[in-house]
Structure formats: C-alpha cells, structure tokens
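Fresh eyes needed here. I'd like your take on this protein's tokenised backbone:
***
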Amino acid sequence: MPKRGTKLIKIPLLIFFLLVSCARLKQCAYEGLNRDQWQQPDRAVGPDGKVYAVDVDKEMNDLVAERAKKSGIANVEVILAKTDDPSLPRTGVDLIFTSNTYHHIDNRVTYLTNLRKYLRPSGRVAVIDFDRRAWLEGMWKHYTPSEFIKREMDQAGYNLQHEFDFLDRQSFLIFAPKPPALEPSKAPPSADISGSE
C-alpha cells in the first residue's frame, strides 16, 4: 500500500506535466492535423532576412523560440505582442504575414490601420485565413470570409494586390497601403488654360 507522502508527490508532478503539456496542446489545436499538407508552408525568408514571430501568448512564443533554436535557425526573433498592437520594430518591416489569426483580431479596421506605421514604403500585408470552405473551423466560427477581409482592409487604407486560390480551405490575400491622399495645401497648382493672368 503506497504511503500518503507518495500520493502528495505524485499530485504536484501530475499538475506540472499537465501545465507543461498545455502549451503543446494549444500548439496542436492551432496547427491542426497534417497542417503542412493543406497549408503548404513552403515560403521562406532569404538568408539575410529577419523573421519576427509575433504572438500575444507567451507559451506559444516560447515554443516558436525553442523550435527555431533546435532547428538552428538564427534569424527568428519572437515578440510578445499586445492584443491591439503587434509591437513590431519601429524601423519597419517589408511584410506583415498573418496566418489563421485574422478572425481573432478585435476591432480589425483600427488594428489594421495602425499596422501601417510598421510597414516600410513598399511593405505589404499578407492574410491567410480560413474561409467558408473550412467546415471544421466554421463550426467554431474560426474563419473570416474573404469578402469581409477585403472590405475591412479597404476601410483600413489598403488596396488588394493579389488573390491566390491554391489553398483549399483558406483565402490568401496580399494588400498594399493606399497612397496618401494629397492634402489641399499640398495639391499641385491648377493650370490656367484661359490665357489670362
């Protein structure tokens, strides 16, 4: 018969293993089964590029950092973001890429408008999110129809640049900031074609 002290040691160990595995369970829930097959993640940053892995969940950031370290990838920096700001470097980035997270963003038009400050002049925003074809994600309302994304990005000041259709349950859209409108004081002078002065 086990002693009472043995049971007391087993309970904290069980709690420890449950807590450690929570991050792995979240990762599995976010990434799903066979994700590489349906997500087709074969996109890369060049050897001189830098990747900022941004998440509001510290446990997920820790997993990304651990995976990058184990894989010998040195150009990934994790950033713990705020729910209303990705906290990217003020020097700017060339591409903001969001995959399967668009539907989690609150006050999207405001959030997306504020993203513009992090984009370099030729920067783009790429959005991959589940759409109505994703039946399982649809049951949990973890999707955003592409027409909603396009409308919200337009309201936030972006033009649609490309729309890809090779993903079978997701939309893949790339946007660029709209050029700033000329302010009345900066408008070029109008030409007087009447000939009078």
Q: What stands out?
A: The longest strand covers residues 119-130.
